[in-house]
Amino acid sequence: MTPDELFDRVADKLTPLEVSTGKLFGKRALKVHGKAFACLKGDYLAFKLGEGTPAHTKALALPGSELFDASGKNQPFKDWVAVPQTHADQWLRLSKTALKTLTP
């Protein structure tokens, strides 16, 4: 599956939770109430998990994961972790975790 197909699969599973798709920095994103919590960039899906949280630490420990640098100018967002397609089996779980940071 392509990253876009995997993204669509995650988005479809989150639709019942009022999640929609949109754009963040020109990239496909998952949003709730207009706020992005996941963003697709190439073969990575990045998640807003909150710097220093257990979820952030675990996601960053996945081989190939890195802080999300949306601009590609070595200015990563400390709250976001970009997880490669090789760990796409974790994308839905991480999306749900990121979603919880934005919803009460």
Give the number of helices. Answer: 3
β-strand number: 6
- Sheet-strand content, in percent, reads 25-35%
* Main sheet specs: 6 strands, antiparallel
Radius of gyration: 12 Å
Tertiary shape: globular
- Which class of secondary structure composition applies to the elements? alpha+beta
Straight-line distance between termini: 33 Å
Helix proportion: 25-40%
Low-confidence stretches: none
User: What is the element string, with H for helices and E for strands?
Assistant: HEEEEHEEH
The structural domain count equals 1
User: How do the strands line up in the largest sheet?
Assistant: 1-2-3-4-6-5
Mean pLDDT over all positions: 94
Can you characterise this structure?
By secondary structure, this protein is of the alpha+beta class. It contains three helices and six strands; from the N terminus they run αββββαββα. It has a six-stranded antiparallel sheet, with helices on one face. Strand 1 and strand 2 (27-32) form a beta hairpin. It starts with a helix and ends with a helix. The model has no long low-confidence stretch (mean pLDDT 94).
